[in-house]
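Margin note from the TA: students keep mixing up input and output lines. Inputs are the sequences; the output is the structure of the whole complex. Example:
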Amino acid sequence: MSISSSASNKKNLAKVANQEGAINNTPVTLSERSITGFALIRIFVGYLWFQQLFWKLPPTFAGLYGYIVRESQHAIIPGYGALLQHTFLAGCASTTAPTGCTLFVPLAACVWSAELLVALSLMFGVFTRFGAILSSILALQLYIGLAYTEWIWTYGMLVLLGLGLVAIPAGRRLGIDQWLEPHLRQSASNSRVARILHWFV
Amino acid sequence: MAVIRRGLLTGLFAGLVLAMLDVVVDGVPGNGLQEVLRWFGITVADAGLARLAGFVLVIALGGIFGILFGLILNSMNAQAVSINRAIPLGLLLGFAWWLLLAQMLCNVVHHVSPFSFNFTGILLTLPLNLVFGVVLGTAYYQMQTRTR
């Protein structure tokens, strides 16, 4: 009797655990309002990156120079400062202006273009996850170089914002990804490129 | 009529997004909103009040462009628009806003040739108006889908 009772209890416990597991593992579906909210956050984060293009405009990108110098002096990872010294700051004669630098302009152009790409991707919601990954990498680089020179969370928050937008397909509302997604989903079964691109929307 | 009403509502929403983006400008928060008032020859002495009036005006302009969006769809007899059409049409209206108001009218007000363009000016204003267009088109499509 006791054995039978114990077996029955075990069965009941297993049943309850299964039910709880089923409830806890129910896929989370974002409501229309939530995803629209995330889309608005995406637009504003994109605009944040967009505005930072204007103090380091081409062709000189001069505004960026002081920050690169600061990064080379205060980086939190050993060797990162030296890396900047031998790339961005190679041949530079001054700490205030990019005179004599050999690689500063081409590398600064790459940074500026990457930030433009992030801004356009997030503002327009086109390949949003790609833009969000790129923004996280750029923000992480800023964190490594500048975290000790400002409030330590400033660039940390920027990294987290980027990662948040990697996790959620925020471009599928109020963005061009809403148009791209069904097309790429359809082509994904036949094309590997489409499958990869589909992950970015 | 439902198409035009939907256009108005989504235009107001897209205008609100644009107005909010104009508020969070690095270094000069909300100053772009005062500029919008100047396009129409309106000057308000109090800067705070001018920003508020500009904020409302941008939303109202969004509503007007939203009505235009609805009127264009109505003229095409498109009671139900696909996303393939909604986004390009929104972008076209966003571009029209930029060209007619942010560039030509703004230049005329500042006594410059209406066709005077510069790289920084274009980079500063055009993407925002195109974002307005994308939001207008996608929000319209979303609202239409929900209604149906």
